[in-house]
Each structure stands twice: as C-alpha cells, then as structure tokens.
Write a structure and sequence with these properties.
The structure holds two protein chains of two kinds. By secondary structure, chain A is an alpha+beta fold. Chain A has two domains: 218 residues, no CATH class; 139 residues, no CATH class. In chain A, 50% of the residues lie in helices and 18% in strands. A six-stranded mixed β-barrel of chain A has the order 6-7-12-9-11-10. Chain A has a four-stranded antiparallel β-sheet with strand order 5-13-1-14. Chain A is elongated and about 120 Å long. About 5% of the residues of chain A have low confidence. The radius of gyration of chain B is 17 Å and the shape is globular. In chain B, α4 packs parallel to α6. Helices cover 33% and strands 27% of the residues of chain B. By secondary structure, chain B is an alpha/beta fold. In chain B, a hairpin with a 2-residue loop joins β4 and β5. Classes of the chains: A alpha+beta, B alpha/beta. Chains A and B meet through α1, α11 and α14 of A and α3 and α4 of B.
Amino acid sequence: MNVFQKAWCSVTRKPIKSILLFLVVLVISLFLLSGMASKTASVKTQDKTRQAVGAGLLLETNETNRHKRIDEISKRIGEGVEGTLEGVHKVRFDSIYGESWGVFTDNSFDTLRLEDIEKLAEVSEISDYNITTKVTPVNPVNFLRLEDADVDQTTDFGGVSLIGNKDMQMDANVLTGNLSIKDGRMVNSGDVNVCVISEELAALNDLEIGDVLQYNDYHDRENSTVYEAEIIGIYHVRQYMTPLMSGDTFRSENVIFTDLHFPEKAEGNENDPLYERAYFKVGDVNNYDAAKEKVKAVNIDWERYDLIDNNGNYDTMSANFNDLENISEILIWVVAIASFLILFLVFVFWLKNRVQEVGIFLALGVPKVKIIGQILLEALMIAIIAVTLSFTVAPSVSRVTADYLVAQQVRQMEESKELNAGHVAIDSFTRSEQQITGVSVNISTQMMLFDGVCILALTGLSVITAGITILRKKPKDILSEMS
Amino acid sequence: MILEVKNIDYAYKTQKDKKVLDQVSMQFEEGKFYTIVGSSGAGKTTFLSLLAGLDTPISGSVLYNGEDILKRGLNYHRKHNVSIVFQNYNLIDYLTTEENVKLGGNKKPDELLSEVNIPKEAWKRNVLQLSGGQQQRVAIARALASDAKVLLADEPTGNLDEDTADEIIELLQRTAHELGKCVIVVTHSKKLADTADEVIRIKNGSIERNGEMTN
C-alpha cells in the first residue's frame, strides 16, 4: 500500500477524527475569509459614505486678501477724502473728540463673484452646485421670533436670520445631516419668495405650510418695504446651529432658510446679494482629486478665495471606518495565531492517539518522515475539502460578520454622539451624520487563494511542529509507550 | 549464521550504571527456532529490540549476514532483514485483514492468510473484528509477507488461550523449519520454550545458551 492509499483509508475509515478536523479547519477558514471580506467591505463603505454625504469643494472669501483689498481701495479713494469705490465706503465722523475715519464694505465688495462661481460649476467633474448667502438679519413683520426672557434684548437687532440657498439640499447644515425637513420641502433652484422655518418658530406662531411671512429691513422697521415669503417647509435640527453672533436674532430657532435672492430683498438691497459660500458637488467621488485639480486650474482670481475640500467629513468617517478596518485586520491576525495554536493542539492530540500506529510503522521499517508525510497528507485531504466548502459558505458568513462589525461601529458612534448631545453645534463641513444602510462584502478569488494558502501552510506547520515530538523519539520508546 | 550480536552492552537511560546486557555475544542461524527466556526485567525484550534494530546498544554491534546493521541503517534492517510479531498483535486498526498483511511486504496476502488459516470471509473485514488468535495469525502473516530471513516475536502467545497458543507455536515452528527462517521468540511460556531448537536464558546481564554461559 502506498502512502496515499493508507492516508485515504485513515481519513475515510476514522470518520469522527476526520469530521473533527474538518470542522476546525472549516471554522478557521470562514473566520479568515470573513476578516478579509470585512476589511475590504469597510473601504467600500467609506467611499459610499463619502458619496452619500456629498464629496465636494467649498469656495469662500479669503479674509487676508479681503483686508488687503480694502486697504488698497481705501488708499485709492485718497487720504482725508470721503468716497465710495468698488463697494468700499470711506466715511468721516465728526464728534466732540474730533475727526475720525471709518471704512465699511457693502455686499458688492464682499460677495463671491457669480461669474467665478459659474465658471467653476462648468468643470465637467462638478455635477451640481449651490450658493449660500450670508446670514442676513431682518425684521419679522407678521410673526414673533423666539426670545430668551432672561436676556436683555436692547442690544439685539430684534430680528431673525435669513440664509438664502440656490439649492437647500446642498446647504452645509443639510449635508452634515444636522438639518432635516419635518414638513413640506426644501428650497430648490428656481424658487422665489419662499422660506423654510424651524419647527420651534412654527410652533410659537402656529404656522404651517402655505402661510406667508413678512420681513423688512430692521434698520427702518416702520418705513422700509415689506417682502413676503411663503412657508414651503418646516425643519428640524438634531443639534442647534451655531449662532453667527450673540443675541436672539441669530439663535438657531430663528434661522430661516429662503431662496437665494430673498435675503438681499428683505434687507433692502435688492440686486445686491452677498454670496458667502459656494459648494460644488463632485459627481464621482473616485474622481475627487482630479476634480479638485481641474477646479483649481480654472482661470479666476484665486487670491480672492479659499477653496476648501470637505475632507473634514471624510476624515471623520474614515476615522470610524478605519477602526473597522483595524478590527478586521486584528481579527485576521487573531484567527491566524489562534488557528495555529488550535491546529497544533489538534495534531498533538491526534498524534498522541496514533502513537501505536506510528510504532507499528516504525517496526515495519517505514521511515519517520514517511509516517509524518502520511499524517500530513491526511490533514491536507481534510483541509482541502473544508477550505473548498468554506468558499461556498463564506459569502453569507462574511456578510453576517461584516454587518455585526459595522453595527458595533455605528453603535459606538451613536453612543459617542449621545455623550456630546447638547454641547456641540454644527456649523460647517467638519462634522457629519453617519447613515449606514448596509454593508457590501465580496469574497474575491485573491482572498480565496490567500485563505487556501494560509490554511494549508498552517496545517502543514502544525503537523510538522506536532510531529517533531514523535520524530525525536526512538522506535523502542514509542513501542514502550504502546505497551 | 544469519544474525550475530557481538559484545553488546546495554543499560536503561534511568539506570545507566546497571547494565541489562553486559558484553553479550550470540549467533543465530537460519531454519532454527530460538526462544529467549528469563525473569521479568531481565532484558529479554531489550535484547529482541536490539536484534530488531529498534534500539542500539551502548557498545558492541549487531551483524546481519556479517554486516553491522547500522551500516545500511536501522530502517533498512527492519524493512528487509527482520520482521516482528508483538504480544498485542499491533495491527493497523483502520485497515482490513488483507491490507494489514500487505503492509509487511510484497507477497500475496491471500496465500499468506490461507497459510495461517484465516477464513476467506475475514480477509476484507476490519482487522479488529477478528478474534485475538486470528489477529495474531494475521500479524504472523504480515511478518511472513516480507522476504526477511529473521522473524522476531515478543511474547506472541501471551494474550492467547492455550489452544490458540498451540496453533501459534506450531505456526512459528513451521516458519522456522519449513520456510527456513530464523525464528527468535521471547517468552515466559515454558511450553513454548520447550519446543525451541535452542533456548537462550538471560540472567544478570548474561546469556546462558542451553545451559552454557556465553560471556
């Protein structure tokens, strides 16, 4: 009988031993595959999350350049001369203390240039864009605002804040997941004279969709023109938005989202908007870096602007999902080490039970290497069947494992968020809301190959390590153990 | 002379100062049936192990056909020169009767099994399903399957009833006298010892050959 025949007989005619080893190898292989699948699943989730949140670029005014331009224009107006140039106003004040000079800017100076925004929006990788106005304080004419009764309101504007958006879906508060619509809808491109109010403001004034709110310039409440905007939505925030300034005018509940041009009208500057930021959505997140480079290559006066990528979001999320990747990697290592120990112990136990057989073969003149070779062959036969079966079961098991790991991560994030609730306000692109709907796992051929090689190597190593104890013994000692 | 031991010394690892075999020399011939007797712990099985190449002496040598068995290696010696039968049969439990015999060598198992009176219906059965006497006969058949000229047996009738033991003794005698092999049997059985062509007694590390001290 050759070694293969003997090995086959041993495997098939001692089923309990074979089934035990088969199950051990099957479980090890499944764990290894699940670990690898979860590791790649985490990466996919990262990308998907980035897509969901909206990979994009943000355009804002560069403050240093703004001050520099004010100084330059002020000088061009002339020393000791009052005047207005390119949206910069130089004014002289006379008082009992003497003469003093003030410089202020209007919307035309501070706004992002619409033509620059449109140029950037034309980049092929940019799928959509949004423009957001400055926070504009205005006077509420036919409704009440929320006020803190304990706070002295004499220094406050007594108004509410308007934020205009071309497309509210891409407002920072929406993108970060902090703001959601409770009733009605958001402001879309093309809407005119519409607004979306907070649920608190709606409750205070008993307002509903379709009601019309009136606003005018808070500087001249009596005489300025009153503008009307229809309520098309009522929003809810998870955490209050950070106020621009102190005072109830800017408190989160008094923030009203409108169409892009309403704020300028309500504050009495029709056709003189102040666009504070523009958001450019990258269509395919995989082309994010290329899109950024293309946007930067557009010929506009870049000194005026800051181009901010929203990696704030991405980093926050990747931090969470890198944890998943790390956990998966740890899982792989733990499984590999534990597998070796388990397999080693299984084979030590196995060989201990086969000491008589080893002794008989030695007495028959079979070399030790051949004896270990037969045991290795048996182990490999079982391992190959187990690994093959694990390939068919692995996709389901991996999905369950990955789901579990992701659920753990999400739970951890939610716990952390609950701890921070009420302490942190969301004000920019640097925070995000995690919404994971599922995990995609895939067992690739490469993973199977790696798994197969690992399992066979571990099996071989374990048999040889366990076999050393026998290889070191003299045949007579083994035969003595038998008797 | 097929097998010879020359001036061998042996001591157990745990009692290195006490020699179990002390300068023992002995020669064995083909076609003869030898029995090795002695009290428990006298070194009978140890002596057989040295002849079988399962262990090596501290000093001295074991020669097969005049050649030191270490020269070709102990595995070679066990595979080609000697075959061994144990008290507890030592058959492979996951193989059939026939397959166990095949492990011994290239001779046809059916002939050997017929020779040792194993019924045909038992040939394909798992060897553990046979009786003790049948298992020992299978072990002898396995030993005969090789071309080895020396058959070594350690208490081959130790676990058997009297009738079966008689059958085994007869089989071993036939092996020596009819097949021309050198059969060396370690035994406690006086009956078995009495049937031998030559009785070797091990006592105090020395060998007494049919009443004659060899060292």
